[in-house]
Amino acid sequence: MHDKQDESLVVLIEEFLTARATRKPSPHTLAAYRRDLLAVAALIAEDATTPLPLPALSIIELSPRVMRAAFARFAAPRAPASVHRAWSTWNSFFTFLVADGIVAGNPMPAVGRPRALLPQPKPLRGADTPEVLLASAARNEGRQRDPWPERDVAVLAVALCAGLRLSELLALRVGSLGGRSGERRIEVLGKGGRPRVVPIEADLDRVLRDYLDSRVRRFGSRSVRPDSALLVDRRGEPLRRGGLQYLVESCFRRAGIGDRVPRGARLHALRHTFATRLAEDGASAAEIMRLLGHASLASSQTYIEVTAGQQRDAVRANRTNRALAGLGAVGRVR
């Protein structure tokens, strides 16, 4: 057995996170790994026969019985999806330790975990909401301190017409746009470092060209070198997470559609709208999976299932169907 088996659990957690970083997860994902590992570790330290400070906790103390007790406490105030995510993180952590020869086996199969429910899509509500949002962003409103409608429309259009995640939008370079006329595309670095190519149509291509032309007027031709960030702020600096979220929120406010944006979705609602409209227009789960960069076909299938449910609700609400209900048994002698 590896001589690190008495090493601090906190140290081993950091080694695991360093190893995971080579897979290029988003900073948000890496932070979630750390949060889940340390939260359960803190409960284990508290439950020790003699309570320990967390840095003093050793890996050899993590038996199946200890892990079951800690996860029971961890699960009590949390949603099943959060518990499932933490279980998966700890399972990956122990798999790493086994591979490195630090522990003999993985205790997590002996720890129960709730079934993970796939999150339901949260597209923008209202049949015309995307169009209202884009039209509002395209207006050069005087009340803005430094209006830049070309940039605002480009951000919204890429999210709505290509379905990119926030981290994927931030990672785009000017050189990510490629292909000849009629075959234009965006090269995307997706979740987990998985690349994919999303085709873009002529109208989105025109929006992006207009935006880049406006950027040259503002900051000069050097600002659109292929290795430059595609999305920038009003000073020409690459947009960051908070700045992108604020930009989209301000577009929602200016369009007056705040009540049509699902709670907790915000920018992600634009991606969900893209996928939902694909399903409504007949795209298969496999096509949605490729375009959105899902790792699982099941994630893509949820858009089709939601769309099918919406179609049934629409049929159920049809006035003619309600009229049939009032007919009673047709042809029955009364």
UniProtKB/TrEMBL annotation:
Domain of life, per the record? Bacteria
Signal peptide span: none
Q: Spell out the Pfam families in the cross-references.
A: Phage_integrase
Q: Which InterPro entries match?
A: CB, DNA_brk_join_enz, Integrase-like_cat_sf, Integrase_catalytic, Integrase_recombinase_N, Tyrosine_recombinase_XerCD
Q: Which GO terms describe its molecular function?
A: DNA binding
Q: Which family does it belong to?
A: Belongs to the 'phage' integrase family.
The molecule here is called: Site-specific recombinase XerD
